[in-house]
């Protein structure tokens, strides 16, 4: 299952240099602000929901919470998205959904983040409401209307369809491709 997640390449050193030169070309100060992050990804002018989502992603990548993504945080993000084990990714998704940081996801949080993701990705087979109801129906074992990290991880790992849906819906590899290719620096 996870074997296809590693990148072909010639080891970490040339790859690191490659990322560093791209990062510095896009961001000469070495500190990527939220505004630059959106510009880099071509995501300016989103609706408020989309903006909220990008801000959440930015805040989670900004590990030391200084308002900037530096190169080390950038590499940590790339490693997680490209090489991360599935439970690491699920923890990351959980953190993304848990907007108020209380350690539980409620329906409102999941609904708002999924609505925001739809605003950016555009493609989906179901409405945000249907998605939210389905997730809670499948994995809220004690029916308390909230998902703990444990409920979330074990529920998603138990259900292949849900795992696929969540992985596809929240796939950030297109975000990273934009960064890797540096396609925005010509703008």
Structure notes:
By secondary structure, this protein is mainly alpha-helical. The chain has a single domain, classed as EF-hand (Recoverin, domain 1). 63% of the residues lie in helices and 5% in strands. It is built from ten helices and four strands; from the N terminus they run αβααβααβααβααα. The chain has a two-stranded antiparallel sheet with strand order 1-2. The protein has a two-stranded antiparallel sheet with strand order 3-4. The N terminus and C terminus are likely disordered. It comes from Nothocercus julius. GO terms for molecular function: calcium ion binding; calcium sensitive guanylate cyclase activator activity. Keywords: Calcium, Lipoprotein, Metal-binding, Myristate, Repeat.
Query: Can you tell me the number of structural domains?
Result: 1
Number of strands: 4
Sheet/helix structural class? mainly alpha
Q: Mind telling me the CATH superfamily name? A: EF-hand
Query: N- to C-terminal separation?
Result: 38 Å
- The percent range for strand residues is 5-15%
* Strand line-up across the major sheet: 1-2
- Helix residue percentage: 55-70%
């Amino acid at each position: 299952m996870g074997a296809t997640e590693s990148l072909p390449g010639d080891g970490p050193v040339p790859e690191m240099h490659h990322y560093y030169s791209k990062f510095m070309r896009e961001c000469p100060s070495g500190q990527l602000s939220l505004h630059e992050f959106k510009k880099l990804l071509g995501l300016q002018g989103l609706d408020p929901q989309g903006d909220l989502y990008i801000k959440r992603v930015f805040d989670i990548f900004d590990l030391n919470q200084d308002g900037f993504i530096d190169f080390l945080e950038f590499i940590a993000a790339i490693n997680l998205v490209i090489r991360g084990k599935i439970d690491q990714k699920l923890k990351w998704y959980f953190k993304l959904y848990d907007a108020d940081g209380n350690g539980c996801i409620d329906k409102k949080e999941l609904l708002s983040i999924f609505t925001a993701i739809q605003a950016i990705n555009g493609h989906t087979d179901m409405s945000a409401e249907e998605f939210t109801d389905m997730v809670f129906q499948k994995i809220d074992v004690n029916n308390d209307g909230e998902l703990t990290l444990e409920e979330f991880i074990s529920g998603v790992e138990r259900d292949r369809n849900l795992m696929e849906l969540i992985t596809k819906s929240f796939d950030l590899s297109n975000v990273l491709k934009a960064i890797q290719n540096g396609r925005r620096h010509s703008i």
